[in-house]
Amino acid sequence: MQILLVDNHTLFRKGLKHVFDDSLHQFKIDDCSTISEMTKKLQTEHYDLVLLEISMTQSSGIDELIQLRSAHPDLKVAILSSEQNHMVMHRVIDSGAVGFIAKNCSRLELFRAVELIASGGTYLPAEYINPRPSIRQNEARHKTSTAILACLSKRQREVLTHLLQGKPNKNISQIMNISENTVKAHMSAIFRTLGAQNRTQAVYYAAKAGVPLNLVQKNTLEKPTANDDSLEAMDIPA
Questions:
Q1: Which pTM value belongs to this model?
Q2: CATH label, 135-220, candidates 3.60.70.12, 3.20.20.150, 3.30.930.10, 1.10.10.10
């Protein structure tokens, strides 16, 4: 997997590249320090994943994420952030990111996050999810992946596939040739099945239940029916 790291802190970039080179040999990492450099690299090089520091621009970073996803819809984008904020996390997932990685996470958590994203999943820190679910939500969250898929129609499984890939509702409606209202209706059914209150929780609970992306994709091929150690404290090599 080819990864592009976009961060304006030189020491952090060098340290993270060292971690990948030292421990994650299956991933090749390139880096740049500005959005304009990132844009140029994406025009000439192939990358599977962009790790984007969300606070490096004068705006919130959400606009850059949306523009990046629009220009490169098949490119996976995960957010790096020093700001551990529920609202920011919800916004980046809703805007199409496939992960939210805190810059003060341990190396082990970083490895797990990147490996999960590489396998087609979406990574969210467990502690950012609502820790006090209702009884109904708690029961829903303990369903197995087989039970979750059995509760969803074929079209809902297709929507779930796109949701896990970080696609926003507008893109899903275009891909599936249905209205955004229909997408929202399918999302509501998915939320109820997973015991989630929003997209961010739905992504997390589906991943936690072990919903395999290839199984979801396999089911969507059928014809639909009418029923349907912290990183910020890394040792930098000389």
A1: 0.63
A2: 1.10.10.10
